[in-house]
Amino acid sequence: MRTIGAVLVVMMTVTGLAIAQAPPPPPVEAPGDRGDGPPPGPPRGEGQRPPRGPAMGGPGGPGGPGGPGAPGGMPGGPGAGGRNERFEQMRNYLGVIDAFSRQSRDASQAGIAAVIAAADLLKPRGSDAGIEYFTKILPQVKNPAVQRAVRVQLAELYKAAGKQDQALEQLRELIVAEPTQSDLKALENTPPPPRQGP
């Protein structure tokens, strides 16, 4: 039951992060500010027609028939940003669902994600609260990959609390630990590092 609760906490955290994304930054400069627009000319007098053509409201131009921003026009004009933004939000949401789906199938990934989420939740309480929590839970952890994640968190928390000896002890446990069968299988499937030139 705790595992399901931990997975749900992780899912809610990642979903919140995906939804609370910062909006895209505003454009740095307007197209006319870069000097790529039409050259400034004398002011138009009354009765003069605005120039027409692809660049100024003519067919295929901005605001013209078939141009960006016009009904039936090309994407990228005014109003297209909202559609693109909604598309990006949906794509991000589907990416989160895919990540959760893959994570929920793998006990190691779900457990490691839960360790990270617990560390984030405990951060406002300080290093000692995190040390107490992870020290208490470590003997109950059965998955070797999750045990290693807990030890990494403990090493970081001890370091932040100024307890270097305890941090070094957690790191020593990680260094001298025997690889599991799944570790050895993963090593077999890992391609060799690229060869260095002479």
Supply database-style keywords.
single chain; 198 residues; mainly alpha; 7 helices; 56% helix; 0% strand; extended
Folded structure, characterized:
The chain has 198 residues and is mostly helical. The chain contains 7 helices and no strands. It has helices at 2-19, 80-105, 107-122, 127-137, 144-160, 164-176, 181-189. The protein is extended. Residues 72-78 have low confidence and may be disordered.
SSE diagram, text form:
Elements: H1 2-19, H2 80-105, H3 107-122, H4 127-137, H5 144-160, H6 164-176, H7 181-189
| Structural class category | mainly alpha
Q: Describe the biggest sheet?
A: none
Order of helices and strands: HHHHHHH
Can you count the beta strands? 0
**Percent of residues in helices:** 55-70%
Total helical segments: 7
Short characterization:
The chain has 198 residues and is mainly alpha-helical.
